[in-house]
Amino acid sequence: MNKERKTRVLVTGASGFIGHHLVNYLLDRGYWIRGVDIKKPEFAETRAQEFSLLDLRRWENCLSATEGVDEVYALASDMGGMGFISANHARILHNNSLINIHTIEAARRNNVRRYFYTSSACVYPEYRQTAADITPLKEDDAYPAQPQEAYGWEKLITEQLCRHYREEYGLETRIVRFHNIFGPLGSWEGGREKAPAALCRKIAIAKLTRRPEVEIWGDGEQSRSFCYIADCLEGIYRLMRSDYPHPLNLGQDRMVTINQLADIIAGIAGIKIAKKHVPGPQGVRGRNSDNTRLREVLKWEPRISLEEGLRVTYDWIEEQVRRKISV
Ligand code: NAD
Questions:
Q1: pLDDT confidence band for 2 (50 / 70 / 90)
Q2: How many Å apart are CA 13 and CA 75, to the nearest integer?
């Protein structure tokens, strides 16, 4: 790290789940951080040297946010779990298009050197994810395109935007495709939470109220892989520092069904649950990450086990539920 002047970094979506953890991770590595978000962090104060409440759908806010920084980690997004992204297509496509088009153009105008974009496994075509035991998805599988929902389309377009800004304007862009990141300090109630957090909450309630019934959307045989936040942060950092400009998967490659995920969490909670399968949005039937390219490019892959990550996450969510119940 430069001893005279710290590298100045903007993290957008700094109050969100991954953004909040990323601010702490980069601070601990000696960076100067400006955090920007439309809301304040929900669960802990930000440690960023500078923090601004800004709506990044607006061009002038993107210009001021990117002023005087060397690098941008673009995480801001109007998003949530399956419940949210399957019910808000117009809003997601509109808001995230504005955020991403304005943020990258503002970064270019302000001569930012490096730009990190957080894409998603939702860019992969639905026709490759129709069975629970699917072949893991390789980066090149994204085309011919048929992404999941408006959320996936917007991510795919912004990946292309990053490519063209690099090729035509020389902005060094890095693109990650996350596969279900989970951990503490993320949404766990209210409609934006994802499967691991939602199941931790339901199982914590079952434990604390001694009512073992836990609702699961669909038959619970839909499958995914889940990656713990600490691995996600290391992967982000390694990719940003690499010279690899193409989209790269970042996730675990151990696939489990939602029923299995619930059983693991119930084991951690130390209770027996009765699963009640109810109608609800399930997304694609099966999805897993092929990590061949991740290993080649980063000489590394996620190593924290699902059980280890879920233990920390469950303990944190049980504590949140406990506090809420006792209020
Ligand atoms: P998150 O919802 O916790 O964080 C996103 C943040 O963006 C929120 O704090 C939100 O307030 C902020 N934001 C929304 N609209 C904004 C606006 N107009 N102006 C400024 N800020 C705004 O999500 P996360 O899980 O931390 O995800 C971070 C990024 O990674 C997102 O781009 C997301 O699409 C992507 N991603 C996440 C996952 C995952 O499993 N968590 C998977 C795939 C992709």
A1: very low
A2: 5
- How many angstroms does the Cα of residue 187 sit away from the middle of ligand 1? 11
> Does residue 294 fall inside a structural domain?
no
Spatial neighbors of 2 by CB under 8 A, at least 6 apart, are none
Task: Give residue 253's Cα distance to chain centre.
Answer: 16
238's tokens: 């390694």
- Report whether residue 225 contacts ligand 1, using a CB cutoff of 6 Å: no
Residue 13 in contact with ligand 1 by CB distance below 6 A: yes
pLDDT tens profile 5-27? 899 999 999 999 999 999 999 99
Cis-peptide, bond into residue 144, ω within 30° of zero: yes
Catalytic site residue 127?
no
Q: Is the pTM of this model over 0.85?
A: yes
Mutate to test the pocket of ligand 1, among 11, 12, 18 (most ligand atoms within 8 A of CB): 18
Catalytic residue (choose from 124, 151, 165, 314): 151
Q: Pocket of ligand 1, candidates 75, 116, 162: which has the most ligand atoms within 8 Å of its Cβ, to mutate? A: 75
Q: Which domain holds residue 260?
A: 184-224+255-288+304-321
> How many structural domains compose the chain?
2
User: pLDDT (tens digit, 9 = 90+) per residue, 85-112?
Assistant: 999 999 999 999 999 999 999 999 999 9
Residue 123 belongs to domain with CATH number: 3.40.50.720
Give 264 Cα–ligand 1 centroid separation in angstroms.
27
Please tell me the distance from the alpha carbon of residue 263 to that of residue 273, in angstroms, as a whole number.
8
Q: Determine the distance separating the centroid of ligand 1 and the alpha carbon of 17, expressed in angstroms.
A: 7
Count the Cβ atoms, other than its own, within 10 Å of residue 235: 23
Give the pLDDT confidence of 149-168 residue by residue, as tens digits. 899 999 999 999 999 999 99
